[in-house]
Recover the amino acids of this structure.
């Protein structure tokens, strides 16, 4: 299973990546990890969930490993959720995972990322992935990112989006962290 965590702390924000490509170690995984690093100041994500490696466990709603991953992703401050574009939307594999979240199950900032063959599906992150991330509780402060498959390993394909998105995502993540601390302090 290619699910990794980092024990060492990066600072106040925890970052997770969820990839719904049916091929393990895919271009989609590379793109999502790149975006996560760029949005978090260059550090590797704390958690990477490559759903292709979970196999039939995704179909077993009592599977403890998948349940733990849902909890960890739900608790992350920043979650990059990525999928290739299949039939104009995200994959069924990603849908299986996201269906496990309650309507308040995603507590942090969510960033939808999709890869596709051409420009005809450029709105797919906004039209298909963003609504579900919002429905499960994620805060989605910026437009989703669409990258053409042929450009997945070209940093220039991400540069303009990152320039616009980075300050908004970072400000929103830290505002959520500050709000959580204030609420925790008020309860104590």
């Amino acid at each position: 299973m290619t699910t990794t965590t980092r024990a060492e702390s990066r600072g106040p924000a925890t970052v997770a990546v969820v990839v719904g490509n049916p091929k393990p170690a895919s271009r989609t995984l590379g793109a999502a990890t790149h975006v996560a690093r760029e949005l978090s100041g260059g550090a590797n994500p704390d958690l990477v969930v490559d759903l292709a490696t979970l196999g039939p466990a995704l179909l077993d709603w009592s599977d403890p490993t998948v349940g733990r991953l849902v909890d960890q992703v739900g608790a992350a401050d920043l979650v990059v959720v990525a999928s290739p574009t299949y039939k104009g939307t995200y994959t069924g594999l990603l849908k299986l995972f996201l269906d496990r979240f309650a309507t308040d199950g995603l507590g942090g900032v969510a960033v939808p990322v999709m890869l596709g063959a051409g420009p005809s599906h450029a709105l797919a992150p906004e039209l298909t992935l963003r609504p579900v991330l919002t429905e499960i509780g994620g805060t989605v402060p910026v437009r989703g990112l669409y990258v053409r498959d042929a450009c997945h390993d070209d940093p220039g394909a991400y540069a303009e989006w990152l320039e616009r998105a980075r300050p908004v995502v970072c400000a929103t993540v830290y505002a959520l962290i500050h709000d959580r601390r204030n609420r925790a302090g008020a309860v104590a």
